[in-house]
Design a protein that fits this description.
It is built from six helices and seven strands. It is an alpha+beta fold and about 180 residues long. Strands 6-5-4-3-2-1-7 form a seven-stranded antiparallel β-sheet, covered by helices on one side. Helix 1 packs parallel to helix 6.
Length: about 180
């Protein structure tokens, strides 16, 4: 009988967590209260296993427990550059940005200037993942953060040849990131 592994367990098999993860020290309830937003359980479980980390020196994911109350109060400003683009070209930049209703809230970014996050529509466990490529292309995925990471890390979603060792790519490993 085959075991049914959770997306987080499948991700752990594909890309183990850092040997010495970097964790925030704040209580989740405090962070959620300071943000004015409860984050999905799969993100919480991911961060409690991986901490603040970077995959393949390309995709960084922060542990929101590292944010001070003051930084949480300023979190709504993190996507102001997108708001500016939307103001200049509303036909090209259509997303609402949190704390706007049903707005985009980022959980990761790439060295290429891409953002990954959720559209805060409905209950946190139902939030779809949104990928904003270079600020001008938006792709929505009807899956959780860890499901998206499994698809990416396994190569089923994208060509994973960039994760080869050597000059052509970075090995698909997860390292602590602060």
């Amino acid at each position: 009988m085959a075991q049914d592994f959770s997306p987080l367990d499948r991700l752990t098999v594909l890309v183990p967590p850092p040997a010495t993860p970097v964790f925030g020290t704040r209580n989740w309830d405090e962070v959620f209260a300071d943000l004015g937003l409860r984050l999905p359980d799969d993100y919480v479980a991911f961060v409690e296993r991986y901490g603040s980390c970077q995959f393949a020196r390309w995709l960084g994911i922060n542990d929101e427990r590292m944010l001070t109350p003051e930084q949480c109060a300023l979190a709504s400003l993190s996507m102001d550059h997108y708001r500016d683009l939307r103001e200049d070209s509303p036909e090209d930049f259509t997303l609402a940005i949190w704390p706007e209703p049903e707005g985009f809230y980022p959980w990761g970014s790439t060295i290429d200037g891409d953002y990954l996050g959720w559209m805060t529509v409905g209950a946190p466990e139902e939030w779809p993942v949104m990928l904003i490529l270079h600020g001008d292309q938006e792709i929505e995925f009807s899956e959780t953060m860890t499901e998206w990471l499994v698809g990416w890390a396994s190569g089923t979603r994208y060509d994973s040849s960039g994760f080869a060792s050597g000059a052509e790519g970075h090995p698909l490993i997860c390292e602590p990131w602060a």
